[in-house]
Design goal:
The structure is a homodimer. Chain A is an all-alpha fold. Chain A has one domain: Rhodopsin 7-helix transmembrane proteins (Rhopdopsin 7-helix transmembrane proteins, Up-down Bundle), CATH 1.20.1070.10. The first copy, chain A, has nine helices and no strands. Helix content of chain A is 77%, strand content 0%. The interface between A and B is medium-sized, with 27 and 21 residues. The site of one retinal has 20 residues of chain A, from α3, α4, α5, α8 and α9.
Chain lengths: 242, 242
């Protein structure tokens, strides 16, 4: 079982770096957890779980891709089924101190489920037509837009505005930008699929394999990057308390 | 050994998410254990053991199912042989503070053994007939009903009613609902088997593979969900004490 990674395949390259980066990030968050104040410990644990879960799935996706040269759709969505709700839990932990209720958590999780179920139908059951890709992609986007709205103008944003904690405000500002920029990479990757607007049957700007390239880049930004931002806030907040 | 997960197989999907969710939950319970008051630490440890044991069995069940497309009956009952008594231990830990005696623990474990032994005979040694499925399923249900009765009206319920601890009352209310709703999913899944009331030889509402789908969903609810409810109670109780 030798790892034969084609030197000219950026998708394979990012599957491998993604795997190791997720595993390393998980160890980082779990170890550093003991250096932050108690109220931040759960956030760092959740970051460690998100990247740890992703490490296992990247391990399988990497081998699947290198062996078959195909997109590991089922594995990707199995990962998201767990990690996207956990990302939402991380958002919720940030605003809980500002008075967020459990109902907010459930609304965001429902939006995430809508986003993922329709996205899965769009990718897994495609007939290669643009109609299929656009229909299910649009429905999925409704869930995404709801989360985006909540972070910029809706309940999450309002809780942060009403809070007098600098940490909550910095955290919510960061998450709003991650959802706007980092999360937007996924629908762009989705449009590289057969029948997608940016793929070979559409504008021709992306090849089908760019879907995995973009998903891998976005996953690193959102899973590791957002975790690091939360860690930074937690550290500076913990220093104040000491 | 590439993981080839058919995109249209929800049973495989839940075996994979179940595996990773159990592993993540186990890490969560074991890490968060240090954030609760001492008297709750054993409960969180037991939750971590239940989900950790399940993670290992899901690892094997997943591979068994994907390779053979068959129900991993033996592995399933090997898991339950350990995790169901541990769930009962978790119930006992909740009411111990309200004066529960060890004899209660043994009665509940005996009921669980009856439930599992007869259920195993029903599934593993079926001749495909409805007579076999219904006979052993009914005997198994006697054990289930005893546990249900204890939680809603019997010894467990009476201990909670007589206790003046809010934590005990909230915990017992939660477990009563989990046993009524979450545990009821298992006998429904059982009826999807050949000869079962809801399967192809009965009402035809379920396909045989729905047995594993329902068991997987129920396991996530009962093992992770109930653990999280206990964790929530433990955290709020610990905050009061600190
Ligand atoms: C809008 C949209 C999508 C959005 C996916 C997103 C936003 C995924 C986020 C994943 C994260 C944040 C993982 C981190 O753990 C899909 C499903 C590609 C389908 C097309 C439309
Ligand atoms: C009533 C009944 C059953 C009940 C099974 C149950 C209730 C299993 C619970 C498992 C749990 C709680 C695992 C968690 O760790 C069987 C055996 C399917 C056989 C048919 C009748």
């Amino acid at each position: 079982d030798i790892m034969r990674i084609p030197v000219d395949d950026p998708v394979a390259f990012t599957f491998f770096t993604g795997y190791m980066a997720m595993a390393a990030a998980s160890v980082f968050f779990l170890f550093e957890r003991s250096t932050v104040a108690d109220k931040w410990k759960t956030s760092l644990l959740v970051s460690g779980l998100i990247t740890g879960i992703a490490a296992v799935h990247y391990y399988y996706m990497r081998d699947y891709y290198v062996s078959t040269n195909e997109t590991p759709i089922a594995l990707r969505y199995i990962d998201w089924t767990l990690t996207v709700p956990l990302m939402v839990v991380e958002f919720y932990l940030l605003v809980r101190a500002a008075g967020a209720k459990a109902s907010l958590l459930w609304k965001l999780i429902l939006a995430a489920v809508i986003m993922l179920v329709f996205g899965y139908i769009g990718e897994a059951f495609t007939d290669g037509s643009m109609g299929h890709s656009v229909l299910w992609g649009s429905l999925s986007t409704l869930g995404y837009v709801y989360i985006l709205y909540s972070a910029w103008m809706g309940e999450v944003a309002q809780l942060a505005a009403a809070s007098n904690s600098v940490a909550v405000q910095k955290g919510v500002r960061a998450l709003a930008w991650f959802i706007l920029v980092g999360w937007a990479i996924y629908p762009i990757g989705y449009m590289a699929m057969p029948g997608g607007w940016l793929g070979p049957d559409g504008a021709g700007l992306l090849r089908p394999h760019d879907l995995d390239l973009l998903y891998n880049i976005a996953d690193a930004i959102n899973k590791i990057g957002f975790g690091l931002v939360v860690y930074g806030i937690a550290r500076s907040e913990s220093a104040v308390k000491v």
